[in-house]
Amino acid sequence: MSGGNACQNTSVVFDPAFTAYDFGPDHPMAPVRVDLTMRLAEALGVTGEDALRVVGAEPATDELIGTVHAQHLIDAVRRLGEDPSGTDLEHGLGSEDTPVFAGMHEAGARVVGASIEAARRVWTGQDLHSANLMGGLHHAMAGKASGFCVYNDIAVAVRWLLDNGAQRVAYVDIDVHHGDGVERIFWDDPRVLTISLHETGEALFPGTGAVSDLGGPQARGSAVNIPLPATTGDGGWLRAFHAVVPQVLRAFQPDILVTQHGCDSHMDDPLSHMMLTIDGQRAAHQALHDVAHEVTDGKWVATGGGGYALVDVVPRSWTHLLAIVGGRPLDPGLETPTSWRDHVRLSLGVQAPFRMTDGRDPGFRDWSEGINPEHPLDRTIKAVRDAVFPLHGLDPWVDTW
């Protein structure tokens, strides 16, 4: 299915207060990227009363955060947020990646609350799809902050879904970095399927996410990892996605789909080595929308994630995501509004992109058309199918030739 869902209720959970999740002016994960996205989406008519509705959320309580995170982590985050002069490296706080900032607990609780609200709206049927672009903090572990992530909003939202009646939750992570925190938290829980497509850990933080990482003894096959070679572009990425993800989701039959849309796989991102374009990322967002309609009757919660080309990439990629969430995909050739470009120039002193496209055709060769055993990407895809498919009752050779 590639059509829209404009007749259904859809939402994005956002409040300007969410941008208080801010590690400082020199940190790559600057909240301006979300502000610019929301401004671009509004200027293009993606958000609004007759489009994707912008809704608020309450901060998550300590009790809700504690359904995933250890109390000693929550206490450490609160303590250092009140006195940001210290560090607590045992809890991952005060490192170069995850520095301490004033109000850190409150800011993290807002992000978690927004993802819970998105999950609640979809699970209760209030909305068909809902997004939280500030969310997607997938590296945080149960007892430790990591990789720009203080609390793991995704894991708390998934836990909320399980505690409120969901029997099976599928999570797909398309950030360039392995979704290690979510995977680890649900490592031995057969009710949660985690799928991560990422640049190989041999080249990139956090160094995990091997094909052989398949879940705990009570949940073999619940973790699916697709570690892609560095410099993989649109065609290779989409080939890998379509060779694995829809098949495993169909076999798992989740009640709801939760996705993480880090756009740091783009060729211009300063923190990775992949070669995707805006057009390839748009195709990935659309593919996840389509598979949600196929396997979960459209129940879909989408979050943000990484992405550090703050002007050239993140606003365009995530505005395409919001348009797809809202059921009104944008023409990739659309011009960016003059008002938005003027805002970028006046506020940041840089020139914003003129179009919503990188001018690429994100076509790919389907796995069923045959494999090249000499190509590193095809060897990876084959290894994933060989390891994962039998654990879900699938034949790894079906549709290969």
Automatic annotation (TrEMBL):
<keyword id="KW-0006">Acetoin catabolism</keyword>
<dbReference type="GO" id="GO:0004407">
    <property type="term" value="F:histone deacetylase activity"/>
</dbReference>
<feature type="domain" description="Histone deacetylase">
    <location>
        <begin position="27"/>
        <end position="323"/>
    </location>
</feature>
<dbReference type="InterPro" id="IPR000286">
    <property type="entry name" value="HDACs"/>
</dbReference>
<dbReference type="InterPro" id="IPR003085">
    <property type="entry name" value="AcuC"/>
</dbReference>
<dbReference type="GO" id="GO:0045150">
    <property type="term" value="P:acetoin catabolic process"/>
</dbReference>
<dbReference type="GO" id="GO:0040029">
    <property type="term" value="P:epigenetic regulation of gene expression"/>
</dbReference>
<dbReference type="InterPro" id="IPR037138">
    <property type="entry name" value="His_deacetylse_dom_sf"/>
</dbReference>
<protein>
    <recommendedName>
        <fullName>Acetoin utilization protein AcuC</fullName>
    </recommendedName>
</protein>
<comment type="similarity">
    <text>Belongs to the histone deacetylase family.</text>
</comment>
<dbReference type="Pfam" id="PF00850">
    <property type="entry name" value="Hist_deacetyl"/>
</dbReference>
<dbReference type="InterPro" id="IPR023801">
    <property type="entry name" value="His_deacetylse_dom"/>
</dbReference>
<comment type="pathway">
    <text>Ketone degradation; acetoin degradation.</text>
</comment>
<dbReference type="InterPro" id="IPR023696">
    <property type="entry name" value="Ureohydrolase_dom_sf"/>
</dbReference>
